[in-house]
Amino acid sequence: MNKFFSSLKNGILLLTLISIIGISAIITYISFKSQQQVYEHETLGRLKAISSTLASQIDGDELAHLYKHYPNKGDITHSDQDSVYKSIHEKLKMSAEINGITTPIYTLMFHPGDEKFHFGVTSSDEPYWMHHFEKFPQKLLDNYKSSGTVRPYTSEKGTWLSAFCAIRKSDHTTPIGLVQVDVEFDKFR
Fold this sequence. Notes:
This protein has a single domain, classed as PAS domain (Beta-Lactamase, 2-Layer Sandwich), CATH 3.30.450. The chain has helices at residues 2-57, 60-69, 83-99, 138-142; strands spanning 106-111, 116-122, 132-133, 147-155, 158-168, 175-184. The protein has four helices and six strands; from the N terminus they run αααβββαβββ. The protein is 47% helix and 24% strand. The protein is of the alpha+beta class.
């Protein structure tokens, strides 16, 4: 009988220990997910503020000039090739530095002919003028004329949190493109 109670006692202790470990794992997971949501919310708010500010600082007529005079992929190969490109590039680069953004900030233009976004001006020292944005989130196209944020999405370069805002011509109604700001989300997963 003592053997029975001893093994029952050990079984209860083992079950209690397993339960404590399980509950601890659940609490840790819930805490991690909660912190992840807070990080995501705060980051998207910051990115939205940056993209909105930049969109208001970029002259849409100047950006349209670039698109008209350099319509093909690779037409712009260095940042100081065109004074308008250089001016926008410097605004994007300064904003990235001031705001601690470690990935390039860039403008995008949607081409209805091939139904793809094409990169425009970038904060990167290496232009990727009119290169295609292959795996863009649908939300970019849906909100092309306004602004928005994109919760974690995966592209060919990783997983990202993004915010974007329309760049308008001087008539304040015609969007010529978007400015997009991203941060990598992979490292927080």
